[in-house]
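Tutorial, part two.
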Amino acid sequence: MNQPIRTEALSDDADLTRAADLARMQRMATGLLVAAALVYAASSFYESMHWSVGFVVATAEAAMVGAIADWFAVTVLFRRPLGLPIPHTGIIPRKKDAIASQFGEFVTANFLSEDVIGERLRGKPLARGAGRWLQRSHNAATVARQVTTGIAGVVRVIDDAAVQELIDAKVARKVRDTQLAPLLGDVLDYVLDDSRRQDILSAAIRVIRFMLEDHRWMVREKIMQQTPWWFPDSLDRAIYERLMNTAYDMLIEVDANPEHPLRESFETMLDGLLDRLRSGDDMAEKEAALKEELLAEPAVRDFTQSLWGDVKQSLLAQMEDPDEWFENTITQAVVEFGRTVEDNPELAARIDGWIVDGARYVVRTYGDEVSRIIAHTIEGWDAEATSRRIELQIGRDLQFIRINGTVVGGLAGFTIHLISVIVASA
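Running the prediction step on this input gives:
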């Protein structure tokens, strides 16, 4: 009457232990049934010899009935009793899919609801407990290693082409959106404030004078090239001398006179340039064209294309073989974070709130999906294997139903026979 558990279907030592316990309890329950049957058979021969033997017969008979009834009740959960095609037997194998769906809904409704999760987590010092845990050097080092390993894993699986496309798009958008002319105007306005403008002009005048002095021969050649061939050298020389002297005199005059009109013209010209740069009206098209030329430059493209590759290689090299300084830095950062959380009640409370809100969001968003996963997983199991596995988990306790049924049945039989005797003798 006891179907042995197939040991080849058991996955680990724990299952083997459960199977042994189940078999032992099955033998005990069946042994009681056999004992009741033997007592019934033996006592039936002596029932007529003495009225008291009737109590033994009735007790044994009722014990057999109770044992068989409860054996049937337990067995029909997992299989057909004796292989007979009795309706509504083999409940678990036959209704596995329905049980799977109902079990998934039960778990979601009673364990993965927002109210249950929120109530379980609310008021718990989760953040401060985690902070104390993180302050232990061994734990902090473990977290640091997991962080570096996790970062390396994420970096490896990232699609390089997608990252490169994102970088190119970000760089191009940033360059196009940045208004360079107003920025340049503000920088020049800061550099060329009123106290520096005239000093810069004076320095420029001196530079021009020195350049003219050092390149007199070049000016002479240009004048000779521009005059007709029939001009005498004396006339070329006179033009050259007059031009150079005039230029020198003007530069000296402007340099020596802070109120010179050319200085005022320089101020006016510079103010106009800064205004145009800040407004950007007449510079917009030129600036846009310059940006497009910049983005089209091979050097810029090479830089953006190599940027992610260099960053990725650097990250992987550091994460896969971190030096002592890097490991200590990450570990110390983890310890400091844990200390900060524990010492700051407001921060800890805020983190606890985030945890509760996050858990409620996950349950609210993915609770039904968990139910479907549970149902789908159980539906994919083999019906017979599922029945055997469930029997391993609860079958040992179910054998006590058989044992109790035998005992209670015997007591009931004894009581009923006693009442019958009393009524008959009344």
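Residues 4-10 have pLDDT under 50 and may be disordered. In part three we will examine how such features are distributed along the chain.
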